[in-house]
Amino acid sequence: MPNQAGKVQKVESSSIGGLPTYEPKQRVLAVTSKYRGLGDCGSQAKYRVENTALKLLEFKAKFACDGKLAPLQTLYRTK
């Protein structure tokens, strides 16, 4: 989530919420969250499974729940 200035900030957590999908060959876990039923806002995070940890590969989101369906904006991508 963005901070009060509207910038995305790094947060460390031991739990993840959302709908998970896993690609075993690539060892990639994707977690998609809708912020409300309409689906006009939400986020998707993709992680690589490394031993017992998850490394963030990509984070996309649309924070404005404005009734407009639009693609999620990429806010972070590993280089």
Can you give a write-up of this model?
With 79 residues, the chain is mainly β. The protein has one domain (19-77). The chain contains no helices and 5 strands. It has strands at residues 19-23, 28-34, 42-50, 53-62, 73-77. The protein has a 5-stranded antiparallel beta sheet, with no helix packed on it. Strand 3 and strand 4 form a beta hairpin. The two termini are 22 Å apart. The model has no long low-confidence stretch (mean pLDDT 89).
**Uncertain segments:** none
Strand content: over 45%
Which structural category do the helix and sheet elements fall into? mainly beta
Give the helix tally: 0
Radius of gyration: 13 Å
Helix content: under 10%
User: Order of strands across the widest beta sheet?
Assistant: 1-2-3-4-5
At a glance:
With 79 residues, the protein is mostly beta strands. The chain is built from no helices and five strands. A hairpin with a 2-residue loop joins strand 3 and strand 4.
Topology:
Elements: E1 19-23, E2 28-34, E3 42-50, E4 53-62, E5 73-77
Antiparallel strand pairs: 1-2, 2-3, 3-4, 4-5
Name some characteristics of this structure.
single chain, 79 residues, mainly beta, five-stranded antiparallel β-sheet, 0% helix, 46% strand, globular
